[in-house]
């Protein structure tokens, strides 16, 4: 017998077995123990507020609520009946009708959107001077220049497109016919006290806020430094086997995305796949921001808090094309583990019919390019039946349903003690998972959770116990879980910080 040949054959067998074993592990990869790379390719300002620091007039971003109080009358401007008619100045306090949502053209020029979604503008059908809110789409007639007193930024004057300033003539007459300066005193009818209500800090706000000259440089710097190769090494070395990467719909148009988005996020995602392959990590691509916004929040890149995804067939088809682009691009990567078709669609704005239609088209788009990748269907937030996707999902193979569990964002958690939070995880979360876990049904994925809560002055041991409870319960999810997020300026939201400081050990 040729022992050299035997040894060589055994060596080849071992290499092949090792290679196939690794490939089998990557293809099976369950349960997922992952972390979200949130705040990277889809901006969320609360995760890294310093990104917005250098934006001029950074308090006047898209979606910020502007409230204007006349200094001469002491009353707030208001869109009468919420829009569709005149602007008045007769409200003693400010609420929805007295709040104007900003669409930012540049740092000093804006459209003002009212409660019923019309835009403030000049009455071009009348005398061309009176101010009304009747336009469904902004044009030059609905574009205003905001001047701020450099010594008192809360004092503003608003120049209309006709070159004159808005002035309050009476409680029921706002007109654009004030020509002079008149100073910034309380006797000037063109001076208003500005207050800002709410606001968003998402991808739309940061790119439109910095503008076409600065935004590309700011975003490129962020993408190249926030998540780097060493992060993937850290993830691998700390007991995780995957990453969930939120992306925005505009990535499919890179390098020429629609304004105000800028090029470069696709190259960053390419880098992520290279690093994932190097360190043997699975990637879940998560469409976090769909065209029109599926929930009206900043993390879905809503411009002004409106929710318009799924309202038309073309919108759904556009989103399917994004899924097809992403799947086709990475189908041959051994790290492509799953494609999540959309993140956190919000009911009732997103109907079950629209979502089901999209999910059918999205699954087909993935399957045209990959038979191996899982497809993840996110449950709706808001009022819905938690089991509503089971029937649809049962018709597909390699499908998981994504649920997000936070002991936050609801008043029921405001006053829970440490032990009550842990009991809620052990009891309620276990029950919620069991509701959608069925024999031979879709897998279940806890795609987002965190060790943060509403408990004040909790000790390190309290956090450790709370995190351990979630790991224990969410570890029962048949597809697995993903922590939100790897990095965050708020420490307990950062898995990196939690691991490095001994709060979580995997």
Structural class: alpha/beta
Strand order of the largest sheet: 1-14-15-16-17-18-19-20
Tally of contiguous helical segments: 10
Sheet of most strands? 8 strands, parallel, barrel
Order of SSEs: HEEEEEEEEEEEEEHHEHEHEHEHEHEHEH
The best one-word shape is elongated
Overall average residue pLDDT: 94
Give the beta-strand count.
20
Description:
An eight-stranded parallel β-barrel has the order 1-14-15-16-17-18-19-20. It is 30% helix and 22% strand. It contains ten helices and 20 strands. The chain has helices at residues 3-28, 203-226, 229-237, 265-279, 313-330, 352-367, 390-393, 418-436, 460-474, 495-500, and strands spanning 32-36, 65-70, 76-79, 87-91, 100-104, 109-113, 119-122, 131-135, 144-149, 152-159, 165-170, 173-178, 192-197, 242-248, 282-289, 336-340, 374-378, 399-404, 443-449, 480-483. α3 (229-237) packs parallel to α4 (265-279), α5 runs parallel beside α6 (352-367) and α8 packs parallel to α9. The protein has 506 residues and is an alpha/beta fold. β17, α7 and β18 (399-404) form a beta-alpha-beta unit.
Can you give keywords for this protein?
506 residues, alpha/beta, six-stranded antiparallel beta barrel, elongated
Fold blueprint:
Elements lengths: L2 H26 L3 E5 L28 E6 L5 E4 L7 E5 L8 E5 L4 E5 L5 E4 L8 E5 L8 E6 L2 E8 L5 E6 L2 E6 L13 E6 L5 H24 L2 H9 L4 E7 L16 H15 L2 E8 L23 H18 L5 E5 L11 H16 L6 E5 L11 H4 L5 E6 L13 H19 L6 E7 L10 H15 L5 E4 L11 H6 L6
Parallel strand pairs: 1-14, 1-20, 14-15, 15-16, 16-17, 17-18, 18-19, 19-20
Antiparallel strand pairs: 2-5, 2-13, 3-4, 5-6, 6-9, 7-8, 9-10, 10-13, 11-12
Helix pairs in contact: 3-4, 5-6, 8-9
């Amino acid at each position: 017998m040729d022992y050299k040949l035997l040894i060589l054959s055994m060596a080849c067998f071992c290499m092949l077995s090792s290679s196939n074993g690794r490939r089998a592990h990557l293809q099976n990869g369950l349960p997922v123990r992952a972390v979200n790379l949130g705040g990277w390719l889809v901006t969320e300002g609360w995760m890294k507020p310093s990104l917005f620091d250098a934006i001029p007039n950074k308090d006047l971003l898209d979606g910020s609520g502007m409230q204007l109080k006349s200094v001469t009358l002491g009353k707030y401007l208001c869109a009468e009946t919420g829009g569709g008619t005149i602007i008045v100045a007769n409200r003693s306090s400010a609420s929805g009708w007295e709040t104007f949502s900003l669409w930012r053209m540049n740092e000093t020029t804006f459209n003002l959107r009212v409660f019923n979604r019309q835009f403030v503008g000049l009455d071009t059908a009348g005398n061309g001077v009176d101010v009304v809110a009747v336009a469904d789409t902004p044009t030059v007639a609905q574009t205003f220049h905001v001047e701020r007193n450099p010594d008192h930024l809360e004092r503003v004057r608003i120049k209309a497109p006709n070159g004159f300033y808005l002035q309050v003539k009476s409680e029921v007459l706002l007109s654009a016919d004030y020509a002079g300066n008149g100073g910034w005193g309380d006797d000037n009818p063109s001076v208003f006290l500005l207050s800002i209500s709410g606001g968003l800090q998402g991808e739309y706000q940061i790119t439109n806020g910095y503008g076409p000259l600065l935004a590309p440089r700011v975003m490129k710097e962020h993408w190249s430094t926030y998540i780097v190769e060493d992060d993937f090494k850290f993830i691998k070395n700390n007991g995780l086997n995957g990453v969930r990467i939120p992306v925005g719909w505009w990535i499919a148009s890179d390098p020429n995305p629609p304004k105000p988005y800028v090029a470069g996020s696709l190259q960053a995602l390419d880098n992520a796949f290279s690093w994932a392959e190097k360190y043997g990590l699975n990637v879940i691509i998560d469409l976090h921001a769909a065209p029109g916004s599926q929930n009206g929040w900043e993390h879905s890149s809503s411009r002004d808090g409106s929710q318009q995804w799924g309202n038309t067939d073309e919108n759904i088809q556009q989103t399917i094309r994004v899924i097809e682009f992403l799947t086709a691009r990475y189908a041959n990567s051994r790290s492509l583990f799953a494609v999540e078709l959309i993140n956190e669609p919000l009911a009732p704005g997103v109907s079950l019919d629209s979502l089901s239609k999209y999910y059918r088209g999205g699954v087909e788009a993935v399957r045209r390019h990959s038979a191996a990748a899982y497809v993840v269907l996110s449950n709706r937030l808001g009022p819905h039946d938690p089991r509503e996707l089971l029937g649809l999902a049962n018709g597909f193979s390699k499908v998981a349903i994504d649920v997000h569990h936070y002991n936050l964002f609801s008043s029921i958690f405001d006053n829970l003690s440490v032990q009550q939070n842990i009991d809620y995880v052990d009891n309620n979360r276990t029950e919620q998972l069991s509701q959608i876990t069925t024999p031979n049904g879709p897998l279940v994925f806890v795609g987002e959770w965190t060790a943060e809560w509403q408990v004040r002055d909790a000790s390190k041991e309290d956090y450790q116990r709370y995190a351990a409870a979630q790991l224990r319960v969410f570890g029962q999810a048949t597809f697995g879980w993903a922590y939100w997020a790897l990095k965050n300026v708020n420490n307990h939201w950062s898995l990196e910080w939690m691991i490095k400081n001994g709060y979580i050990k995997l």
